[in-house]
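Q: Hi! First time doing this. I have a protein sequence and I read that you can turn it into a structure. Is that right? Here it is:
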Amino acid sequence: MKSNRFIVSLLAAFLLVGFAHPVASQSGAMQQQRVPQSRAEIQLSFAPLVRQAAPAVVNVYTRKVERVVQRSPLLDDPIFRRFFGDQQMFGIPRERVAQSLGSGVIVEADGVIVTNNHVIDGATEIVVALADRREFEAKVIAADPKVDLAILRIDPKGELLHALEFRDSDDLQVGELVLAIGNPFGVGQTVTQGIVSALGRTDVGDADAQSFIQTDAAINPGNSGGALVTMDGKLAGINTAIFSKTGGSVGIGFAIPSNLVAATVASALSGKGIRRPWLGANGGTVTTEVAQGLGLERPGGVLVGQIYPGGPADRAGLRTGDVILKVDGREVNDPRALKFRIATRKLGEAAAVEVLRQGRPRTLSIPLTEAPEKPPREVTQMTGNHPFAGATVANLSPAFAEEIGFDALANGVIVLNLTAGSPANRIRLRPGDLVVKVNGADIKDVSDLQRAMRGNAQQWLLILKRGDQMLQLQVRA
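A: Yes, that's right. Below is the predicted 3D structure, encoded as structure tokens:
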């Protein structure tokens, strides 16, 4: 029996350590992996790594005031609803304090912490609890909903806290051992172990510049914002989401890669908010059918469909119909992966973009600049006796479009908000509508729209763009 237990232990340790491969070109880390040589070496543990990393992982507690409507029990009666409809007016508005929890990672010893934006979104109070149970009030330095990251700061009164160093997430490999550290379900700091299951997952969630790390390390509610740590004790990613039909871990979790996290932190600490490079072009995924039409051996890359005049891509010579294959030597297989690659770079640098043009490869050096805010947004509340009264509108620019998650190459006047019961609300305008024409006049900016609404017209013919559809509305005074 002792012999059997020894063999089982040996096999388990062998799986943890990995096979040593006698190829001279392997890295030093790979060459150090070998079969355990003694019983002492078999007694392996993650404890030293946890002792090193865990103090940098914190709990994040938030409170926010929510306005809720206390419904009458009659509203749940189908007979009552049949005669009176779903009468929300019977509800009594009340305020309540909602509490939530998550995790965070100290990335700067003076108290800079990274967490998920969804952990602190809308919070009126944020409290950070360190691993030693000390609590600090936290302030938001910057937040970016587009990539679900938020940067917090606490004041440790001059004390240098334990911080995690960033790992280069581009060097991660599928199969690497990782630890997930966080506060699942509020039970307290918890460590789980797994491997990197996949890299470059871009079809997860709504973020438009993501390339997630997938792991089978158990991640549960409350782990959001926690650390994904590699065996060298460095931060590989920020745990952010799970795939689950029950709400619990089923071994499919996702983390934001550390390279994007590091770029976000650096931008936030610059004092100018989160600023990201902008390509000035968009396109679509090269599917199997598109690849065949272009004569490509296999699907992959981004087919350039539109280029912003005078933008970085335009100045570098990118053309419509080019297929972007790589950025700085890293493959991109869809638009989200392309945005991710650009987002991890610093402003003022240049990205080496490999493209295929008419079957021939070439490399372009594209300068990384911010999206311009031209024209100025001019957020305006429309008033008066006309169809747009009660609508808040603004001019679209590449910068403003990216800020609100709209197509950065779109232009014109966008509807942002509607006042309940207003004329704009009654004709069923929607946030996100683009105003194209009013009574045959082109609407290029807010001033054009204001001029079109003047006078005593008896009717208005409105042409709007809603998503990919063009709509025509005829409104009488």
